[in-house]
Specification:
The structure is a homodimer.
Chain A: E1 7-11, H1 19-33, E2 36-41, E3 54-58, H2 69-75, H3 80-89, E4 95-98, H4 102-113, E5 123-129, E6 134-138, H5 148-164, E7 172-176, H6 187-196, E8 203-208, H7 212-215, E9 220-222, H8 225-252, H9 254-274, E10 282-285, E11 290-293, H10 300-315, H11 318-333
Parallel strand pairs in A: 1-2, 1-4, 2-3, 4-11, 6-9, 7-8, 7-9
Antiparallel strand pairs in A: 5-6, 5-10, 10-11
Helix pairs in contact in A: 1-10, 2-4, 3-4, 5-6, 5-11, 8-9
Chain lengths: 342, 342
């Protein structure tokens, strides 16, 4: 995919590993794919004048994880994330990327980029890298309470993303619940199951259970933002605990210590495979433009990957394709966005 | 702890690995601790006549995972799980253990053993074995929808179990949510957080996130039965995926293949440490007697551990201590079971 026609607005504040890492990430994305960048960060810290199509717009006001997102976004027009979003809204950039506060990025993007026509609730989608395939998992934190129709929309948002950006022709979509049977789970899950059955632009594989997520049984797995957030973090934490316990076991036992040393390259590969940085972070779906939130702890590769995902989504016009798909489905099936009482 | 005065009613149907494994598990528990057993299973398959205080009561009607639990339990008084529960209710046994359908065990126990005074909703608690400590995680499937007061009760139920059965003097209790701040999460979680703050018989450590569960940051972690079920299964699945990916990586790479071979004992130990069988399955808390559901896939050690947990809970009268604690708290704080509208 040629990304040299795209421009990404980058919030240049919030990378935990410092401006050197940020700069290295920007260089990677700009030189390997020719992505244009408008960086809203401190001009004194970022020396990027040698790069084509990379501009630094001096910004020093950072909304951090300690700030309350909504009031901060509303009251601080000079904050780097607010300016980066405004740059997209003004048409100077095609997508926004932040490595800073997820809450601030969600709030700024939802206000500044607007929801796509027909979308009730934008959702935050993580790309979970698993041996075998990458699973689009949503919602991982935008909506802690949902109704059935929101879950149904998340399925369409996730499927449209898998199709347009990841190139999965006919995505398999699963609904997270406490059992495989259609009647298992909360009321809204049971309702969503019924509404998704027979969907014709993706393959609805029915309910999937917690164990099916790490097994990678579907391209898209749908849940509410409370469950999704907790499960995603538990998954990341478990990988860390298991890899840590293996290293510990290897260190303690002289025989397996040698084995552990020899395993190191394989373990490193696995850690990289399962590390969220590999896929460039989470994407806010359901807005008219693309917004991506990378991990604050990203290295240069993580920063570059977050920029690449955003550029790719912009290049294929993922928001436009998603809106079209939702519209087509809403017209054909009447099951989305048309329930009473909302 | 001397368990030779306890008698456990064992549902003898539902062990996936066959009656030989069940028998071996029974022998382990009976001979190592002298636990008495009344086994409701097929007399033709179980040869236990040589054991003291172990009796087989011929039962062949099994409620399986395919059966709808509530109607099955109500209509099949001869089912092994229904008879085992009735045996406890009649005072012949002190606790019930099943390796079969979790749903059937929950239904039979709730009907047959009755809730403890003041308990609104019994909860299913898993003991999650982690490097460092065992975490009591509840609810993992009994209640897919909860109110704040149910979460508060789960905290007390879990703390009472950790105290009386696991011997943790002052259990640390965490509330699972999407952020550490008191205001983060669903409405019922925010309310429960407020109600738990200042609890004086355990240490309320506040909200914990998904990543904190595998890290083992508390002795008891509380959530609703939907989230808990999904997270527990995701955790088990992730361990399996990671261990599988390590074996795969080791096989593919000739250098790390040797390393992998040398790591094998360490990996085996880890798999055992993190395997749910290690702790003997899940416990239904909030009933007047103890009910334990072991994994259907248990080996002999898993069967024995499920029996041991039940015997231990009965020996210390965990249900009685729990009821006492709830009563004391309800009287002192007025925050449990006294909210309006329930």
């Amino acid at each position: 995919m040629n990304l040299s026609g795209t421009t990404v607005a980058l919030d240049g504040l919030g990378v935990e590993n410092g401006f050197d890492v940020l700069e290295a990430g920007i260089r990677l994305a700009a030189t390997s794919e020719g992505i244009g960048l408008r960086v809203f960060g401190p001009a004194s810290e970022l020396d990027l004048a040698d790069l084509n199509r990379v501009e630094v717009i001096d910004s020093t006001d950072q909304i951090t994880n300690e700030d309350d997102p909504v009031p901060s976004v509303r009251s601080r027009p000079d904050a780097s994330i607010v300016r980066a979003v405004a740059d997209v809204a003004a048409g100077n950039s095609d997508a926004v990327v932040s490595l800073g506060s997820t809450g601030a990025t969600m709030a700024a993007s939802t206000f500044g980029l607007k929801r796509s026509r027909g979308v009730k609730r934008p959702a935050l989608a993580a790309q979970v890298p698993l041996p075998g395939r990458t699973v689009v998992f949503l919602d991982v934190g935008a909506n802690v309470d949902v109704r059935a129709q929101h879950l149904v929309q998340f399925a369409w948002l996730g499927a449209a993303f898998a199709k347009s950006v990841l190139g999965v022709e006919r995505p398999e979509v699963g609904l997270l619940s406490v059992g495989e049977e259609a009647g298992k789970g909360r009321e809204e899950v049971v309702e969503a199951h019924a509404a998704l059955t027979g969907a014709d632009e993706f393959e609805f594989v029915g309910n999937v259970e917690g164990r099916d997520l790490p097994a990678g049984v579907a391209d898209v797995i749908v849940t509410d933002g409370f469950t999704g957030n907790v499960v995603l973090k538990a998954l990341e934490g478990t990988v860390k605990t298991v890899v840590g316990a293996i290293s510990e076991a290897a260190r303690k036992n002289p025989v397996s210590a040698v084995g552990g040393l020899m395993m190191k390259p394989a373990l490193g590969g696995l850690r990289r495979d399962l590390h969220p940085d590999t896929t460039g972070g989470a994407i806010l779906l359901g807005l008219r433009k693309t917004a991506v939130v990378g991990h604050g702890s990203s290295g240069a590769e993580g920063v570059a990957n977050a920029i690449r995902v955003a550029a790719r989504a912009a290049a294929v016009d993922a928001p436009g394709l998603t809106e079209e798909m939702l519209h087509r489905v809403g017209a054909n099936r009447g099951s989305i966005g048309s329930e009473p009482g909302v």
